[in-house]
Design a protein that fits this description.
By secondary structure, the chain is an alpha+beta fold. It contains 10 helices and 12 strands. The protein has 2 domains: 1-178 and 239-349, 2-Layer Sandwich (Ribosomal Protein S8, Chain: A, domain 1); 181-223, 2-Layer Sandwich (Wheat Germ Agglutinin (Isolectin 2), domain 1).
Length: 349
């Protein structure tokens, strides 16, 4: 079953506004969630909406107002997000950083106490379409599911790192967790009684496993750092970098009392025009991207792609033919549609 992406955005926006969220914020959240589904990131798109609606209902997600400015230098800004909707905060931060990067060459915005920011890849093309490079990463200091390399006790969240890089052609959109997998995927597969593609988790005794159930057993297991049991020191190092960029620069993180599902965010926009120039930048990045794509494939019939290339192509197809949602997504929203009196979207195909 496929659905027009505009219908899905309207549906999500209607649910959010009826739940009390200001229209501009609801539009931002709806657009980013559907963008994730368009690109195929179906654990971080509309699958998140029931949780967001629950947070609005409980008051754990703030509905009204703007972030508090804690520090404001020409190219470095710090906000207290006041637990406002994450997608709206990130888009507002992008707008500010883009405006200032046009003057300063770069601008960084860090946000403490944001609510969850959804799929990082969904933001990146908005920057690369303007010829800008953007770095975006986040952590959630309120929970932990990833152990440090060599340890058994969870300290971190999957701490994703993303970057949008213009190339003069199809941009590079990188979005990777610094852990072997994500909470969204392990939670989904556990509910469905399925296993992971590889041993990406570790049970409470330090044995690697492909069964997400070990995360819920006692003693509780953890998600492995990127690199797994043999080279997880690499993911461990990267996740410590994320902690410094987010909680460290924002001055708020795991050392503080927990407040509930959320995020601490680092966002940096760089304007290549302020360095060697956009043409020089894309000459280099375009050359590297082309070299990757023309590399002889290791497996016949499977060409080399750059990060994000598959998602960009999928989004273009689904804009035309409709979005194919993961089967559990709309049923998970049905009770909210009934409660809030919102008509569910009708399949286009």
């Amino acid at each position: 079953m496929r659905y027009a992406h505009t219908d899905l955005i309207s549906y999500a926006r209607a649910l959010l506004t009826t739940a009390g969220l200001e229209r501009a914020k609801a539009e931002a959240v709806a657009a980013i969630l559907v963008e994730a589904d368009l690109m195929g990131h179906n654990t971080h798109g509309l699958a998140l909406l029931p949780g967001y609606l629950g947070e609005l209902e409980s008051g754990s997600m703030e509905k009204l107002g703007t972030p508090t400015v804690l520090a404001d230098h020409p190219a470095a800004v710090t906000w207290d997000g006041r637990r406002l909707p994450g997608p709206w905060l990130v888009l507002e931060a992008m707008a500010l950083a883009t405006e200032r990067a046009a003057i300063q060459g770069t601008c960084t915005v860090v946000i403490r106490r944001s609510h969850h920011i959804a799929c990082l890849a969904a933001y990146l093309k908005r920057a690369t379409d303007q010829g800008l490079m953007m770095l975006l990463t986040c952590s959630d200091p309120n929970t932990a599911s990833v152990a440090p390399f060599g340890g058994l006790d969870a300290v971190f969240t999957p701490n994703p790192v993303s970057a949008g890089i213009p190339t003069g052609g199809v941009p590079v959109l990188m979005d990777v967790s610094t852990s072997a997998t994500t909470n969204g995927l392990t939670n989904r597969l556990h509910k469905e009684g399925k296993r992971l593609p590889a041993a990406w988790v570790m049970d409470g005794y330090g044995v690697a496993s492909d069964n997400p159930a070990v995360l819920f057993d006692e003693p509780k297991g953890t998600i492995l750092p990127l690199g797994g049991m043999d080279s997880g020191h690499k993911g461990y190092g990267l996740t410590l970098l994320v902690e410094a960029l987010t909680g460290g620069l924002a001055g708020h993180g795991r050392a503080d009392p927990k407040e509930g599902w959320g995020a601490t965010v680092f966002l940096q926009v760089l304007d290549p025009g302020a360095f060697a120039g956009l043409d020089a930048f894309t000459r280099q990045t375009g050359h590297v991207a082309d070299a990757c794509r023309t590399s002889r494939p290791a497996h016949e019939g499977s060409a080399v792609r750059t990060p994000g290339e598959k998602g960009i192509a999928l989004a273009a197809r689904q804009m035309e033919s409709g979005v194919e949602l993961y089967p559990s997504i709309l049923p998970s929203l049905s009770s909210w549609a009934i409660k809030l009196g919102i008509t569910e979207p009708v399949a286009a195909h």
